[in-house]
Every structure is written in structure tokens, then in C-alpha cells.
Amino acid sequence: MKSLYSKFILTTLVIMLVSSIIGFLFANAYYQNNLKRENDAKNMEIATNIAEFAENQTNLDEYLSHTAATGYQLFLVRKEEQRFYGGAFKETNLSQQVIDDVLDGEPYHGMKAFPKKTFVTGFFANELKNSVGVPLTYDGKQYALFLRPDIKLLFNEIHLLLGWMVLVIFILSLLAELVWSAMLIRPIRKLSHATNKVREEGFDVHLAIHRKDEIGQLAQNFKEMIARLGKLDKLRKSFVSNVSHDIQTPLLNIQGYSRLLENDALSEEDRKTYLRVIQEEAERMSILSKQLLTLSSLESKKEDYSRQTFDLSAQLKSLLHRYYWLIDEKDLSLTYSVDEVTYKGNPELLYTVWENLLTNAIKYNKPGGSIEVALDQVDDAINITVSDTGIGLAPNEIDQIFDRFYRADLARTKTNQGTGLGLSIVKEIIELHHGEIVVESQLGKGTTFTVILPHL
Fold first, then answer.
1. Which residues does residue 335 pair with via DSSP β-bridges, in sequence order?
2. What is the DSSP letter of 116?
3. Which residues fall within 8 angstroms of residue 285, CB to CB, at 6 or more apart?
4. Of 156, 177, 202, which one is at a domain's C-terminal end?
5. What is the domain range of residue 384?
6. Phi and psi of 404, rounded to 5°?
7. pLDDT per residue over 145-201, tens digit each?
8. What CATH number does residue 406 fall under?
9. What is the CB neighbour count within 10 angstroms for residue 225?
């Protein structure tokens, strides 16, 4: 399998090669369609001027030799003679008809009419056919003068320089590309190494990439993802541990008391006590499983859950009436202020919220304490408040009560051991409705939960 580095270098070389070919073909097409006519006209003007000056020279051969030395290839011809000046033509492929036409006074535009080929042949082809021709009169005789630039002479001093320059540019460009691609690939290799380390060793990975480009952003996203995955992994392990513990404890109690019931010498009162413990532990397992299913359902639902408009005030009043007997049994007082409010949401899920908050207010209250419930609508928000005068929470506990399986200090709640999932479910449901829940509490004085729901 090829590495990304080798692929990058190979791709760069291919791009350079293809770009050079395309650029060369474009330059050739531009020459053939635009510059060739201009080159023909320019050389035709030069040939005409040479012919005009030649008419006044005393020595035609000497004049044409000096002219050719300035960078031209010349061919002078009349019916009985022909002479070449300057560099030799590679091919002297000029037809007699062309010569006769020029002798008769008709200019020859061989550069403009030269066949179109690649590699800018109209400029570099050293052929007599690729020239311009003009009539020349000297000493009463009619000549035909053909001219083209001597490319070899013109470029003799600089073609090696140009060649070395192109070679050096190519080598330096390639070296720069190698260095730059190595710098580009290095953080990607680090990312790959970190990914392998995560796979083999876990989420405790340090990634030293500090860049401000897209790769730097990718590295930052990777670090954030790893941190989040590490946290989720810890939560998963804690979740499994807590679930295992919360299932194991009631199971052990059920098994233990079931074995005690096998004793025929048990009194009827002890038998009823053991059965009540078994029932309570079974109910505790039932509640735990129900809450776990609720959490799983919330995780999968997210935005995909049913909404309907319902009477929120009637729902709260129904809940309070349902638990009035338990409030009275716990020697608590209840006061409530419920405005007439309708809301569009999921009534079953929201009922779970109010039930959790109310049962917590009952469970963690003090004998003779009180509970206050309020529902009011302010602007575009609905506020539901549940307050109690119970045991309260320490400041360090407030930030943790919505964590799954978290329980307040068991020394204060050892008689009210729940599953630690109720408030986690509450928060999930509130966030599902795009709301928020606020907690205010003082240790030993009570707690107030305020749910704020946007009025959608």
C-alpha cells in the first residue's frame, strides 16, 4: 500500500507534467493563431528594408554577409545563380514557382503559410520554405531575397542559460515540494499514530499538534473527540458498575430472605416481614429497569417524539391529587398556585418530570415540612417550581445531582435509597423539550427545582 507521502509526491509530479504539456500546447496554439502572422509581417518589413538598402550598396555580397551576421539566414537567387548567407538551412525545400513569383515582384509569406504543427514549428523550423521573400533589384538585375531569423545564432548565448535555469527551477521546486509535503504529512501521521494508540491503549492520548490551518482544526476536533470519548467511557464503566451493584443488592436480599422463609419455625410476623422485604426489593428492581428503559428510550428519541397540545395545569393538579394521601401520611403540608396553561409537548414524558420532582420533595422532606408547587407563564416561557423544606443539598452536590446513579450523602438519606436515575431522566426530558432546569438548595433548609419551558 502506498503511503500518503508517496501519493502526494507522485500526484504533484503528474500535475507538473500535465500542466507543462497543457501550457506548451496552449502557447503553441497562441503562436499559430496569433503570433505567426505578426512574426511574418515583422520579418517581411525587415526583408523589404534590406532589399531597399541593397539597391544603393557598392558590394552586394559584403552587405548581405554583414546583415546575415546580425542574426539572419539569407538566400539570394536569380535565374542563373543562387547564394546563401549566414547559417545553413536544414532544408532548402522551396519550389521554383515561388522563386519565379518573387522574381516577378510578388512577396512570399512563407512563415504565415507554414503548416500548423505542434512545438511551435512555425518559429523553430529551419526550412527555406519557412521564410519570407521579397524582390531585390541590384545593378539592373532582378533578384529574389528570402529571409528568416537565425534561431541558433540568436539563442546560442542564452539557450544553455535558459536550460540550466529551467532545470534548477524544476529541482528547487521539487525539493520545496518534498519538504512542504513532509511538513503537511507529519501531523497526519501523528493523528494516525494517536488513533492506533487509542485503539490499543485507551483514550489517554497526548497529541502535540499546534497549527492554525485545517489540519490544526482537525487535530483540535480529534483531541476534543478523544476527551469526550474518554469521559463517555468512564461514564459507561461507572454506569455498568452502578447498574450491576443496584441489581445485585436487591437480588442478594431476595435470595437471602427467600432462604429464611424455608425455615418452618418462623413466626407469622417474621414471615410477613421477610415477604415485605422481598416485595420491596422486587419493586426496587422494577423501578430501576423501568427507569433504564426510559433513559434508553430518551437516547433514541431525541427530536423524534410526539408532541401534542394539552392542559398542563390540569396535569399538575391531577398529579397533586394522586399523591395527596402520601403527603398527608408523611405529615407534610402542600400549597400550590397553578395558572391555566396549555403546552405543546409530550404529556407522558412531562408527567414523569413532575412525578419525579414531587416524589423527591416528599421523600427528602422532614416531618412537619411543606411543599410548594407553582405554575405560571411569563412572556414566551412557562415556569414550573417545586420547593420543599427538606434536607437540602451541599454546594458541591448541586452540580452532580443530574449525573446518573448519583445519590446525595447516604448518611442523610440512608432510609430513602433510590436508584439515582430520576433526576437524570428529568434533565433528559427537559432538554428534549428545549428547556432548562435550575436548582437552588441550602443544606438542612430545603431545595427548589425550577423548570423553564419555551412556549413553542
1. 372
2. P
3. 247, 250, 251
4. 156
5. 302-454
6. -65, 135
7. 999 998 776 665 555 566 677 777 778 777 877 777 777 777 777 777 777 777 776
8. 3.30.565.10
9. 12
